[in-house]
Amino acid sequence: MWDNPPIIIGHGSYLDQLAAQAGARNVFGDIAAPSAQVSLETIVARDPQWIAVLSDSAVPPGFAKRREWRAVRAVREGHFLLLPGSLFGRPGPRSGTAIQQLRTLLAR
Amino acid sequence: MNPLLQLSGVRYRYPGAERDALTDVSLSVAARQFHAVLGPNGSGKTTLVRIALGALTPFVGRADVDGRSASTWPRRELARLAGVVPQREDNLFPQRVRETVLLGRYPHLSLWGRERAEDRDAVDRALAACDAQHLAERWLWTLSGGEYQRVRVARALAQEPKLLVLDEPGMSLDLKHAMGLFELLLGLVETQGLGVLMITHELNLAARFADSLLLLDAGRPVASGAPSDVLTQQTVEAVFSWPVAMQTVDGRPQMIPLRQPKESRA
Amino acid sequence: MRWTLLAIVAALALVLSVVLGPAAVPLGELLRSDIVWNLRAPRALLAFLVGGSLGVAGAGLQALVRNPLADPFLLGLSGGAGLGAVVAIALHLAGPWALPIAAFVGALAALGLVYRLGLIGGASLDPRILLLGGVAIGAFAAAITTAIVSLADAAELRNVFLWLWGGLSGASWDSVLLVALYAPIPLAVLLAASRPLDLLALGEESAGYLGADVEAVKRRVYLAASLLTAAAVAVSGVIGFVGLVVPHISRLVWGHRHRSLLPAAFIGGGALLAFADTLARTVVAPRELPVGVVTALIGVPVFALLLRRWTIA
């Protein structure tokens, strides 16, 4: 997701499908569009366990340090799923690998 | 007693201009004096005002206000001494007469101070002197040209100045309002002891009301002094490039433009 | 009387900001709610501060350039801020404050350029050149921004446009504190210029003869208004129409004397933005609209109404 303004992935997008196949529930699965802007407070209210971010780095994203984001439990606990863009950005032949990776990450 | 305004041998040229706007101009205005500066369009009259009040600095010569160089005067102090009615005013926002005259009190107000009773009194006095009290609550856009001009003079008077400077005040005024304005100015000189400097191209009105005239032509002084000395037929014809006949009314010279003879019009 | 009404409207806008939102918070739990204290309250305050700053900056600018159509974002600042933001993202600058700082720097760069342009005619700041220069520099910066975005490969860059449309989602007590410490100085400068601004309405020459130090006033007002706008853009993107419309509405009620107009524009602008933000968060819940969209949607009809009134009067 993108942080300013917060843009989440909705139902039907690639990442949403991958997540479903990996056994995870998208807290914003009720939104029909592939991506949408939401308020931070909505994220806090829906209290996801994990926040998936398309990122090629191994460290938590910069916005994790921002004060307003500390209201999200998953941010406080550092529960980030850092997903490389090459694998998770677009549909491709390696989707199976992607789902496997997700499952592993979630199991921790 | 220093004269209120004094120009000595002033020379000025606007950046990029081909010729001087003013060359070797001298002028002196004291209290209780009504001076007029005359000349055709482009003779440098407005430039003279700007230099006299320190908005421009002369290349040669001096411009002094009350004995001090005009450009060294702090703006607010100068505004307490000289009330100026420039040629044009582009009032952007709608206002009532009383509000706009109140703006004239700015040089007397402190940064955060509210308007005091004495400021409101000054406004009332200024409006009374200009015979404009009945206009006080009117919106500016509803005023006629003559009324608006009076209001602008009232605003200058609200500054409680010793000197009034007006640039083409009679322009776009009809006869009645122009005469009325000039009578008003003369009255202020006589009753309140103000000095008045007026820029105008209305020869006849200037000659009737002013004590002293300065005639400019292309930035150069042609003649200065009492109206009957300055406005001779020869001088007027030379400066204004038009044949005239001169008459005397109330002891003051009045000019009557002549029509071109048929032969030269052909 | 009018001030009381304005205060009530402002208080109402703030209360609504705190009470309403996409996440359902029962009234009883409001005071204990994390969401309310850490998210809604700072957001409401930030909206108020930013909206107020834009309202005052707009009023000051309209007086300075003697043009009632002036909007703080005509000065080219939004273009500069957008460019700064895009550059920050393209360079992968790290840090939670990278984006606002880069946007602020970009806005200041644009400010410097336009100011320099404004001095082209000589030592006197020409308001018409400020306006034209602002539009030109803003367009130039926007063009470069678009070029970078279309050429670069990061999907994130496309999201910058959403940021640019204005949003208060970056609101926290940190940003509120920052703006609350920064804004009072330019605000005070503008308020102190109230009387000279009244005089300026008569024209620069007349204002000078009435005792105003016209050049100093122009410089101060321009810089103060620009600094306020730069901070607003850095913190919340480009929120249009507030700076344009709020001064006009305030003038309808309070008249043209800047001593009362500027404070009214502050409170009015603050209330408007707080209200617009509440709408942005609630009308399409659980999704959110960019605040700039809401202010434009409210602002355009209001502006059209004002235009009608202007041409009739």
Give an overview in words.
Chain A is of the alpha+beta class. Chain A is built from five helices and five strands; from the N terminus they run ββαβαβαβαα. Chain A has helices spanning 14-21, 40-46, 73-76, 85-88, 95-107, and strands spanning 2-3, 6-9, 35-37, 51-54, 80-83. In chain A, strand 4, helix 3 (73-76) and strand 5 form a beta-alpha-beta unit. Chain B has helices at residues 45-52, 75-81, 97-102, 117-129, 145-158, 175-192, 203-209, 227-230, 233-240, 262-265; strands at 5-12, 22-29, 34-38, 60-65, 68-69, 82-85, 163-167, 195-199, 212-217, 220-225, 244-249, 252-257. The radius of gyration of chain B is 19 Å and the shape is globular. The model of chain B has no long low-confidence stretch (mean pLDDT 88). Chain C is mostly helical. Helix content of chain C is 75%, strand content 0%. Chain C has helices at 2-19, 34-64, 77-90, 98-118, 127-151, 155-164, 173-182, 184-192, 194-200, 204-209, 214-236, 242-254, 258-282, 291-312. Chains in contact: A-C, B-C. The A-C interface holds A 2, 4-7, 28, 30-31, 36-42, 44-45, 54, 62-63, 65-68, 70-71, 85, 89 and C 21-24, 34-35, 38-40, 42, 94-96, 98-99, 155-156, 159, 162-163, 167, 169-174, 281, 285-290.
